[in-house]
């Protein structure tokens, strides 16, 4: 039985946050679906609100440090990603964009990604498709066909929560299938290069 790493990036600002709640729901569905295939799952959650100041510094300096660096490395090393943002002014939040701006180039290439968004009204439900998908296409990630948007009425309304759970479960199954069909991620080892014998170096070979 292999272990897969699932990174969860939540750009919610509040505590509690519906953005984090949606991210957790998708992650739990993904882990459950992977468990059915015999895969173990290690989940690493990144709350961007905890890195807001560090993200601003990294955007200016180009050098992420401390906890932000660890979060970026965890996302880059994951086998799959759940990315959820609140919708502000008809698009993803600035905090969400800043995180993926400072992520190392190529880190998400080919990585299966589940996209989700939250907002106060259903009018922004297409933000996943017209705002988030182009971003992750540019990053060369493998975004899942299903995207989940949750408006305020989706939480605890008459039948609304059950419908949201089903949408999250469908997305989780898609992400699990994509992760299971992909070779496990392995962090790059700077020392994992063939050793050139010293006599060859001297001979210029």
Automatic annotation (TrEMBL):
<keyword id="KW-0285">Flavoprotein</keyword>
<keyword id="KW-0560">Oxidoreductase</keyword>
<keyword id="KW-0288">FMN</keyword>
<feature type="domain" description="NADPH-dependent FMN reductase-like">
    <location>
        <begin position="6"/>
        <end position="155"/>
    </location>
</feature>
<protein>
    <submittedName>
        <fullName>FMN reductase</fullName>
        <ecNumber>1.5.1.38</ecNumber>
    </submittedName>
</protein>
<dbReference type="GO" id="GO:0052873">
    <property type="term" value="F:FMN reductase (NADPH) activity"/>
</dbReference>
<dbReference type="Pfam" id="PF03358">
    <property type="entry name" value="FMN_red"/>
</dbReference>
<dbReference type="InterPro" id="IPR051814">
    <property type="entry name" value="NAD(P)H-dep_FMN_reductase"/>
</dbReference>
<dbReference type="InterPro" id="IPR029039">
    <property type="entry name" value="Flavoprotein-like_sf"/>
</dbReference>
<dbReference type="InterPro" id="IPR005025">
    <property type="entry name" value="FMN_Rdtase-like_dom"/>
</dbReference>
<dbReference type="InterPro" id="IPR023932">
    <property type="entry name" value="CE1759_FMN_reduct"/>
</dbReference>
């Amino acid at each position: 039985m292999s272990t897969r790493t699932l990174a969860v990036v939540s750009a919610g600002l509040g505590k509690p946050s519906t953005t984090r709640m949606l991210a957790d729901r998708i992650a739990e569905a993904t882990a459950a679906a992977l468990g059915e295939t015999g895969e173990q799952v290690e989940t690493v959650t990144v709350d961007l609100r905890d890195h807001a100041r560090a993200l601003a510094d990294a955007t200016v300096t180009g050098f992420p440090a401390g906890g932000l660096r660890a979060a970026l490395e965890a996302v880059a090393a994951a086998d799959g990603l759940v990315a959820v943002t609140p919708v502000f002014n008809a698009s993803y939040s600035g905090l969400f964009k800043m995180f993926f701006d400072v992520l190392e180039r190529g880190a998400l290439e080919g990585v299966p990604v589940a996209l989700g968004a939250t907002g106060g009204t259903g009018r922004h439900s297409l933000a996943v498709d017209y705002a988030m998908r182009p971003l992750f296409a540019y990053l060369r990630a493998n975004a899942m066909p299903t995207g989940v948007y949750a408006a305020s009425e989706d939480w605890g309304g008459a039948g609304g929560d059950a419908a949201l759970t089903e949408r999250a479960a469908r997305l989780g199954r898609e992400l699990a299938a994509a992760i299971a069909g992909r070779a496990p991620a392995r962090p790059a080892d700077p020392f994992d290069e063939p050793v050139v014998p010293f006599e060859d170096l001297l001979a210029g070979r």
